[in-house]
Amino acid sequence: MVILSTANFKRIVISSHIPNKKLKVALTYNVKPEENNFSETKSLSLQSNSPNSINDTYAEWDTIETVTAIRNALAQFHDVTMIEANEEAFEKFRAAEPEIVFNVAEGASGINREAQIPAMLEMLKIPYTGSDPLTLATCLDKSRTKEILSYHCIPTSKFLLVESIGDLRNFSLRFPVIIKPVAEGSSKGIFNSSFISRADELAERISANLNSYDQPILVEEFLPGREFTVALIGNGDETEVLPVIEINFGELPNDLVPIYSYEAKWIADTREKPLNIFTCPAKIDDGLRNKIAQAALKAFKALRCRDWSRIDIRLDRNGEPNIIEINPLPGILPDPLDNSCFPKAARAAGLNYGEMLNKVLLIAAKRYNLI
Q1: Using CA atoms, how far apart are residues 29 and 27, in angstroms rounded to an integer?
Q2: Which range marks the domain in which residue 103 is found?
Q3: What's the pTM value of the predicted model, to 2 decimals?
Q4: Which residues contact 26 (CB under 8 A, 6 or more apart)?
Q5: CA atoms of 44 and 239, how far apart (whole Å)
Q6: What's the pLDDT tens digit per position in 109-151?
Q7: Which CATH number belongs to the domain containing residue 200 in this structure?
Q8: How far apart are CA 141 and CA 184, in angstroms?
Q9: Which of 191, 215, 243, 345 could form a disulfide with 281 if both were Cys (CB 3.0 to 4.6 A apart)?
């Protein structure tokens, strides 16, 4: 395990993205459809209290800009074929016969959607980047993730899974709480209204979310401390912890609560009017940095992540790091003007966008003994 500072990263691994052979690579992805409803979300009011007022259906999918940037980065060293992650993907993989697949596909439907493409690839015996179907499905299910973290004694906030309003009979959490759909990413389903400080609001808000997302709702005790996100690259003892990022909630508009909600991520923070919401490297002492890194590494290992992941962490009232979420398919917006955490951490560590992606590909190729 390596905890990287901006000083030692450049010396140790800056050239490790360069392969010793050209590979036949397939890039598989989901791209946002050109929909007026999606583009209109940018102009919605930040005062929204209803998940029904925002169309976040495709929040997890990538833009054409991102997919093109990934392709161009990989094509610096390899032959790249594009295969969209839809119903035709299986036959296209079989026909293309890639040596390895670079997977950024989020999937289209179901709680196991992120596992669908890797499961196809395993059936076809085609190597691919990133975590396996079990890890992807487990990490998307926030309650299952928290159960595993709890088993391994890795701190995470107390929680209750609500499949129907009747489950609130077992409610014993301390207010305030956060509610969120159990299996969504990219802040999908996490709104300003997801922060609940009174018992009389809880059932109404959960009922609205159950109807909107057609899946169980996770209720978590709110952690009042500072929030960080940690990018990791590698496997086993060679896993590298990139410079830690802190989320500065003081930069949010006054009417937003201090969580990285959909409104904060996609509406208040835009390329045209960016918020200075991230500090990278985080301004923390070595003791806290090591605690955060160790928590992230333990979570990475416990969930059996591979090649890369981004892990979100928040401090509890005692200042101890707690795992919020594990993201084995991290967001990777290419433009430095966009607040995209994994590329931001990579740049702080000395890797540009293309070097970051090719490093991930190389790590996966080595895992399969392709290079």
Answers
A1: 7
A2: 2-367
A3: 0.86
A4: 80, 81, 82, 83, 93, 96, 98, 100, 101, 102
A5: 41
A6: 788 889 999 999 999 999 999 999 999 999 999 999 999 999 9
A7: 3.30.470.20
A8: 8
A9: 243
